[in-house]
Amino acid sequence: MRRTVITLALLGLLAGCTGTPKPGATPTQSPKAGRDAALPGFAFAGCVKSEEGRELGVPGLTGAIMGKGDRAVVFSNTADGNGCDWVEYARELVAQGYQVAVWTYGAAGGQPERSAELKSVVEKVRAGGAKKVALVGGSRGGCLSVIGAAEIQPAVAGVGVLSCAKVYNRDQPTDLAPWTAKLTAPTLYVLGDQDPYLKAAEAEADLAAAPATDKKLLVLPGNGAHGDGLLNVPEARKPLTDFLNRVTA
Question: Which of 20, 41, 54, 88 is the most buried (most CB within 10 A)?
Answer without folding.
Answer: 54
